[in-house]
Amino acid sequence: MYLPQKQEPLQCREMPAPVSSKQSPLTLVRRLRRLREHPGVRGLVQETRLAPTDFIMPFFITEGPKEALEALPGQWRLPIEDLLKHCEQLVNLGILGLCLFPCLGPKYKTPCASAALDPDGLVVRALLAVKAAFPQLVLMSDVALDPYTDHGHDGLLCPQGHVDNDATVQQLCQVAVLHAQAGADWVGPSDMMDGRVGAIRRALDKSGHERTGIISYSAKFSSAYYGPFRQALGNKEKRALDKRSYQLDPANGRQALLEAQLDEDEGADILLVKPAGLYLDVISQLRQKTLLPIAAYQVSGEYAQIHAAAQRGWLDLNACMHESLLAIKRAGAEVILSYFAVEAVKGLRSF
Ligand code: PBG
């Protein structure tokens, strides 16, 4: 958002020096710098503007005490009562939505992710608490099994060791219904199993949750940039877990569009691309193809790398934060999930 700064000089320092004769030496019909020299003109012609309403803020929640996350500076594992304080801040800043990720200790993790179905589990209690205190916020829950599996995969493993698609989808349907019951406005399947959007839609409808939406992680790439997230979930040694048998190959843009098409056909309400900054081509191509809203997830590694370079004095944190988010919106995303959401909105006035 452009707001004139008090200290900003009205005349730009790089204004071309006046030439001696009245006649300009170049006869140019089009001088695009006329759109750039005056800060006010720059503000008027700006094509893309970030606003508080663009963002969904992801939060990590815990049964334990509040804990800072080493690889995600400024982010925390939050007990539910602290989460509520952060929700109040979202409301004050005009941010409309949040997404929850549970960080669970080893005793909650099993091969069959049974804790994901606990009707009194951490996510369920957090959803109930946020919904009761802040009904105006849009509550998104991540529907995946990886916070609950001891092997760290997003699905159940067959005896042969590979991820069992259809058994996983059945369990995800139960998780989605549980979250909808607890107040999730959007369930976000992030597992990349085939057919899960249609199955979840049917399960939600059958259980009377036809008003609960599906924000589908349609194009989720098998990315090395999820490292800090996996560490936050307590899967430090699984930072480099190989999920290529279900997540998209970073080389395949066309297949990402196919995935999105299938999710749209199966009833997804919003299509999500993840990571965001490295896949702007996918966001932009999807924007040409679908009439649905598009969300993009600026993932933990994208956040961490900007922070790491800024800590060394190599990059300007605020400028890079703003530029990275602006690029995601310019590519065509209406909704941006980002750990920067709160800081970015606080800083919008200075850009
Ligand atoms: C998995 C999930 C992942 C993220 C969100 N949900 C990582 C993974 O596939 O292992 C990553 C988000 C981030 O890196 O910020 N269900």
Write the layout of secondary structure elements.
Blueprint: H1 39-45, E1 55-62, E2 67-68, E3 76-78, H2 80-93, E4 97-103, H3 122-133, E5 138-143, H4 165-182, E6 186-189, H5 196-206, E7 213-220, H6 227-232, H7 253-266, E8 270-274, H8 280-289, E9 294-298, H9 300-311, H10 317-331, E10 335-338, H11 341-347
Parallel strand pairs: 1-3, 1-4, 1-10, 4-5, 5-6, 6-7, 7-8, 8-9, 9-10
Antiparallel strand pairs: 2-3
Helix pairs in contact: 2-3, 4-5, 7-8
Residues 142, 144, 146, 154, 190, 226, 229-230, 243, 299-300 line the site of ligand PBG.
Protein model, in words:
It is built from 11 helices and 10 strands. Strand 8, helix 8 and strand 9 form a beta-alpha-beta unit. The model has no long low-confidence stretch (mean pLDDT 93). The chain has a single domain, classed as TIM Barrel (Alpha-Beta Barrel). It is 36% helix and 15% strand. It starts with 38 loop residues before the first helix and ends with a helix. The chain has 351 residues and is of the alpha/beta class. The site of ligand PBG has 11 residues, from helix 6.
